[in-house]
Amino acid sequence: MNTNSTTALQYSVDRKMEDSMDSTKLRDEFLQVLRSRSRRTAEVPLSVEPAQPVRDPLNQETPKPTFSKAMESTPKKDIPNFKELIQEENLYLITEDGDQGHLPVLILSMKESSEKRRPAIVFLHSTNKCKEWLRPLLEAYASRDYMAIAIDSRYHGERASSLTTYRDALVSSWKKGNTMPFVFDTVWDLIKLADYLTQREDVDPSRIGITGESLGGMHAWFAAAADTRYAVVVPIIGVQGFRWAVEHDKWQARVDSIKAVFEEARIDLGKSTIDKEVVEKVWDRIAPGLASRFDSPYTIPAIAPRPLLILNGKEDPRCPIDGLELSESRTRKAYEDPDYLNNFEVVAEPGIGHQMTPLMVKRASDWFDKFLKLFKFRSVYKKQVLWFRGPEHFVVGHSHRL
């Protein structure tokens, strides 16, 4: 090998090490924020309690028919007597002290499988919905021999007592600053969920995917940035640039989706209208770092080199596509190694606003099949990377890559 080639190779190795160190530092800082609220000063051991199926699930708003139609379009294997061959598990994971420390989990899977350890996918619902709303997705993926998992995010579903529980939690977070109901507290739950899934004898710990829609897409994005045990990632209409939106006066649609907390902040700050200052202060209070060091230009690249498919609508006012230019360019650099070039893709569907579509559902399905199923049966080589093994520490392990 000549001197120039050696120098180029060394630069490539140094760059990868630097990127790994940057991602490790970001994860460490993010975990410190997740732990920062008072109730987590004494963490509880992860434990499991049995639960019963939810007969009358609580949606804090009526789901739109278009979203239900998209879920029902999920590719599903035609299996005679399917309902008799599928099994359902309901349980609670105890992730911390307090009522919100009970994480409701719903798992659908086939009773019999050709694989002892199956790939698993975690599905995350949108604002004011619940895990039961995702049942069409769960059944479709279970029919294709995935372990299909859904949870109720904080202050939703079984973790809500009324139609205003989530709204009230957001306002309380602004007032007291002792919880993070917008995204971050549920990310803590998803780290604990990864602890549980990797211990199950029927789940392949190296083949766990995560996806979600809208708020659920944000949960998937941040959980994958925090925990590399989520091996394949597909956020749907969730990825956005929070800082970009503030700087370019494009924050209104996102703010309107949870407006009560911003109105409360406006009053407390003595403002006549919600403005840029109000938005910045609310984000920093209820999700510290969301519009700064943990925004998409920093946390999305941290998912590399794991397969990441971002699905958005080109006309989505809540997730403006122009606000992803910096995030996408930084992330492409994180995937620039020839071995990983095909592991990252961004698709903005023309003419679509803040809506999950059948095309998005199909693309997500194909992505999971490609990276969680097809790759398993091909020859692989090993590359050493930093793998995050829960909220306590990092360990060096091996990832399998084509």
From TrEMBL:
Coiled-coil ranges per UniProt: none
Pfam families, A to Z: Peptidase_S9
Gene Ontology biological process terms, A to Z: proteolysis
Gene Ontology molecular function, alphabetical: serine-type peptidase activity
Top-rank lineage group of the source organism: Eukaryota
Limits of the Peptidase S9 prolyl oligopeptidase catalytic domain: 186-323
Disordered: region residues: 38-74
Gene3D superfamilies: alpha/beta hydrolase
Name of this chain's protein: Peptidase S9 prolyl oligopeptidase catalytic domain-containing protein
